[in-house]
Each structure stands twice: as structure tokens, then as C-alpha cells.
Batch of 3 targets.
Target 1
Amino acid sequence: MIYVYYQCGIYKSLSKNACTMHSIKNTRLEVGVLFAIQQQVHLAVTYSELVSRINAAPLKKSKSHRLEDMIAVKEKELSKIMRYKQALYQDWKDGEITHNDYRHMSEDYEQQAESINTVLRTLREERDQLENGMDAESPFLTAFLKYQNIEKLTRDILIELIDHIKVYEGGNISVKFKYADEFRRMAEYIELNSQLAVG
């Protein structure tokens, strides 16, 4: 009988000091990953049912204090950047800085403002999604729901659902799934509307 083990790649190829020489039997790894996928699929089924129940309720207007706070912080940051940019213009007009300094500093503030605006757009979209309802048949849930009767791992399943797998000393593993942000958002939506989901 042939036994297959996976060894730590860092230890093997990069440095004996960077990590330890830990390994895991392939069958144990497969069982652990399969169990993790089954749990995530079960979670997707539960979320889908709860979201359907929430969406069927007559009133859905959920506010996330976490998102409102984050938006307020970013809006404050943006406002500060814009004030600095205006003051910078005045400094140039008053002759306190050169045109070259003004141009460079202005570009820097512009990049900072652009970066904050990108974050704000994402946060506002997330807030709107929470307030207006989520799709119980969204693509990320569908990706997991089709594996409700999974009993065996395939390469395609791993590529579709899993971002990466970490193996720790002692044989413990952690599985990082794709769509983690979507799951987190849906969990928050369910939590904000928990009285609707339970009722």
C-alpha cells in the first residue's frame, strides 16, 4: 500500500529555519477539507432560507451601525483632504510654496481623495444592499448550494470554492473559502433582520 503525505513547502524548498518539517497524510487532508466544505454548504443552505424568509417579510429597512460609522469616518477624512488641498492652493497664491511643490502636493492629495472615494463607493453599495435586501439565489450561494450532497472532492470543486488551505504543525488545517466577504455581508444582513428571520 502506498501512503501519500504533503510536506511543508517552505521548509522543503526555502529554509529550514523559516518553518518546521511538518506533514499531513493526503487522506486526512481530504477528509478535513471535505468536512469544511460540507459545513460551508450547510451554512449557505441556512443563509439562503433565512434570506428568503426576510425578503418575504413586508418591511425591510435595516441599518448597519458598523457601515454608517465607517462611512462617517471616511467622509471626514475626505473633507479634511479637500480642506488641505484648498489651503495648499492659497499657500501657492500667497507665494509660500513654489508652483512645482504645489503641483506635487496637489497630486498627492488628489490620489488620497480618489482612494477614499473608492472605499466610500464600496461602503455605500454595501449599505444599500443591506437596506434593500439580498438575493437568496446570489451567485456565491449558488456556487455552494449545488454541492449539497457532496461526498467526494474533485479538483473543480476545490478551484471553485476554496481560496487556499493552510496546514499547521500537528496536522490541523484551516480552509479559506472564496466569497468570504459575501458570506460576511449576508451574515450581517441576517443579524440586522433576525427578528424577521425568526418570526
Target 2
Amino acid sequence: MEDRSLQRTALLVTTLSSLLTPMMASAVNIAMPAIARDFAMDAVSLSWVASAYLLAAAIFLLPFGRLADIVGRKRIFKIGTVVFAAASLLAGWSAEANAFLFARLVQGIGAAMIFGTGIAILTSVFPPHRRGWVLGINVAATYTGLSLGPFIGGLLTQYLGWRSVFLLNVPLGALILAAIWLKMPQEWADSRGEPFDWKGSLVYLLMLTAFMLGFTWLPRWSGLVLLVAAAGVAPLFVSWEIRHVHPIFQFRLIRGNSVFAFSNLAALVNYSATFAITFLLSLYLQYIKGFTPRAAGLVLIAQPVVMAVFSPLAGRLSDRMEPRLVASAGMGLSAAGLFLFVWLNSQSGLWYIVPALMLVGFGFALFSSPNTNAVMGSVEKKYYGVASATLGTMRMVGQMLSMAIATLVFSLFIGRVRITPAGYPLFLTSMRVSFLIFFVLCGCGVFLSLARGRMR
């Protein structure tokens, strides 16, 4: 028997959280030049405003997803909301760059608790025949947050200062907690009583941290050393997890389950190819085109608005036809949009930029909801938390890799200097090279998406 009241509450709570976190992330991108001025950050250091958050979220998503299956998905979700709001307060009060970046790390930990449980809660509450629809609404909320972020971030940065972007999260977090407290008494813990794999979690955290930092620190020797260390630890982690009775990650979800494996790989590639678009174009519009933060935010709204409009439709479509076909078509359209950005220059007009953003947004909408539906529909109920966290990890690692690629290109072409008018030609070159890399990645992702096999 379906509990419609519980379903509505769960959808409301997870939708609010899916609105909050991406709204903050996209708003921060608009505030980047203002943050750089206040803390005197160079181009490489500035990229860590996003990367610190993404690194923490990526490495903690899987452990918190597994922990949520054991102790309760709602419990971890609530704690994550508290941590996220508290870290936002700390970021808004930070007096110097290191304290600010630390607050971003803590914010990422809170986001990991939210991302690792939200989709799992929805999948626990709604039956399979309605799952694509509600996941589409959840994804639409994410893109609505991304849509509102540039506009709200631009307004707040221009009129109240960049710190207000972070302080806004505090009352929104309180609203989510109130909704959970008053309207969602039920808990979900389908693996209750099973032990938590602490050793595997520690090895996983160290391995992923070494990989992410190593990639970001290239081409320095320290980056190469960390990548080699991560590669050396990976076989040990896999060996431990296969032998453990209750591992942090069920490798059986990958072995013999091509839908789960290739859907997650496709998500990794897709986010690696698309996340840094807002970061690069925010800098381009404000530095090269001379836009105010508010005006830049209005331009960047084009992509997430299209995502928000079409995601529920794509989710419903994936309930009726093969998800891999819808998702693969979407990734192909995103690749086409990225190809248009390769040719950006100082003379490019909004007539060129906005349609390219809309094309990427439409492609992403077609990809995301069906791909999420494919992942969650390919596992047993007891693994919903791990599956949700795995997909979230792919998203966060992909976003981190996207920023790492942009950072690496900046390091090679610009170096550790602030972006000034004298360096604008090098900035444009590095931006176009980044978009070329992203186009190639997204093109390869189409084949990964098609390779997942049929669900029906």
C-alpha cells in the first residue's frame, strides 16, 4: 500500500535540498572574481574555491551512502543539512583565504551526506513505475537551483557582497530541517545491523584523495607521485572489498551488471565534460566581455533553465522507453554544444553563446534523468544507498575532474598569476583548449552510454 502523504513529504524535502546545494554552487561561480579580489587569489588558487568543495563531497559520498543504509538514510540526510548550513555560515564569516577554503571543505562533507541519501530516500518511497517521474522532478529541482544560482548570486554579489551568497544557505537549511522534523517520521535502513567497513573506507578515502589531488597538481612531480600512489593502492582496495563480507562498495554491483557499470561511467564522463562550463564562462563574461555579476548570471541561466524544463519530461520518457537511447542522444547533443564553445573569442556575441548553452542544457536534461533511472533500477532495494552514493560519487568526481582539467590548462598556459587584461589572450586560449578536451570527452561518453545494454 502506497503512503501518498509520505511520498509527497519525501519529494518535498529531497527537492528542497536538491534546489539548495546546486543553487549555492552556481552562485559561487558568479562570485568568483569578487572572491579573488578580496583574498588576492591567482587563477589556480581561485579554482580551488570550487575544487575544495568537490573534493570533500566526492571522497565522502560512498562511505556516507553505505553508512546511511546501516544507520538510516533520513538520519544522515539531517546531519548533512546541519553541517552544510553551519559550513555556509563559516564561509560567510571567513576573514582570510585558508579559513574560507576550509569552510568549503566542510561544506563538501555536508553535501556528501545530502547527495548520498536524497535519491535513495526517493527510491525507497516510490514504486518502480513512478520512479522515473519523481527522479525527473528531483533532477529538475537541481537544475532550477542551477538556474536561480547565477541570477541570485549575481544580485547578491553586486548589491550585498559575495558573503551573502553563503549566508543565504542558513535559513534555507533550517526550512529543510523543519520539514523533516514535522512531516517525515519514517526511517529507511535496509542494511541495519550490518557492520561498517571502516578499514575499507579509510583506504578508499586515501586512494581517492591521492587521485584527485594528483590530477589537480599536474604537471608538477608531486601530482605524478600522488597518481602513482593512488594506482598502487587501488588493487589493494579492490582485493579487500571482494573478500569483505560487508564491504563499503559491492563490486558484485559491477560484475555482471553492465547497466549499473556503464551508466555510472557515462555519468562520470558527462560531468567531467560539462561542469566547468559555468566556471569558464563566468570568467569569460566578466573579464573579456566586461559584464557585471548580475548580467553574467542572467546569461548563464540559459543552460540550467532548459535542464529544469525538460528533465521531468526526459524522466517520464525513460519510464516508457529504453533509458540508454534517451541518455545517449542527450550526451550527443551536449557534445555538439561543447563543440560550439571551442570557437569562442573576444568578439563572440550573446546570439552565439546563449543558443550553445541551451543546446548543452537540453542534452544534459535528456541524459541525466534516464541515466539515474537506469542506475537505481538495476540494483536490489538493500543497495539503494550504495547505488545512489556511487552515482553521486561519479557526479562529484566528474565535476572535480572537470575543474582539474581547467586548472591544469590554466597552469600550462597562464601560470600562477592573477587574470589581468595583459593575460586575456592566454586566458582565451586556455578556455578554448579546455572546451576542446571537454568535447572529445563527451563524444567518447556517447559510446559508453550505448554500451550499457538494455534494461527492458
Target 3
Amino acid sequence: MQEHVILVDRMGREIGTQEKIQAHREGRLHSAFSIFIFNAIGELLLQRRARTKYHSGGLWTNTCCSHPRPGESYYHAARRRLNEEMGFDCELTGLFNFIYHIQLDNSLFEHELDHVFVGHYNGQPTPNPNEVDDWKWINVDTLQQDVQENPEDYTYWFKLTLDRVVTQSQKITFCNET
């Protein structure tokens, strides 16, 4: 079954849908979300994207990212995808959104209106092996240093958002202590 993404204009208004890979080939602006999950001691849950992914395979990135389905809210899509990809669910809080455009490997482009969410979770994920090759909890200071020293190991959108997420998430009181 083909997946479709929601095409948007720069103001975030929906203007149609397109098959996901085709939208990435053409560099069409579409809606997306990125999730950053922290634990009680402030570590961030990272995943290494499966090497078989259609782009950015084998790179470390935030806990989960994907695209909402037509008719699905960003919040519900994020909760659904977190469970599908990482095997758990938790409350999420929206932080900010931004647009980015970059050419990736395999002659594909990411051109996304990305909505960023944060959440709190203290358990062990059970990732989907079709999506995730590895995962780890990591201290934010250690992570930020590693991103500076080894930027090629991380996804583009993750490097764009990490510092802003860390700063803004420190202002949030998480209600869910799961």
C-alpha cells in the first residue's frame, strides 16, 4: 500500500496529497513531525534509523519522526507513530514548527513543515526492526558534544533542532511519569 504525505504551502495550509517517495523525489513541501523523548534524569532517547530506510539509513536521530496521514492531526499521528516505531506511548507537548529543505542521499529531498513534540518516558522501548537498527538513552551534554565532533553520524533535521529542543524542553513540566 502506497503512503501519501500531505502537501502544504509555506503557511501550513493543506494543498493536496502526494505519494511519499514521489514527494521526496520532487522536493515538495509536506507536513511532518519529529518527537524527542526524555527520561527522568534528562537523557534523550535516540534511534539509529534502519539501514534499509529510503533515506538517511544508519544515521542517529531523535526518538521518532514521520508524516501525518490525510485527515489525521499532528498530535494523533505523532502518538500513533511513536507506538508503531518505538513500541510505547506517552503524552506529547508541541514545542515549535519549522520548514527546512535539503537534498539527501538517493537523489531525494526533504522539504518539510516539521512539527516538533517532546515527551517523557522512563521505560524500555521495543522498536520496530524495520524502522530502527539501534537505540540508546544519552546525556544531552554528551550528545551535543558528539554532534559537534561527528555531525556525519546524525540526520540533518536532528542537527537543526537539537539545541532548540533542549532549551525549550527545559521549560516544560511533564505530567506523565510513565
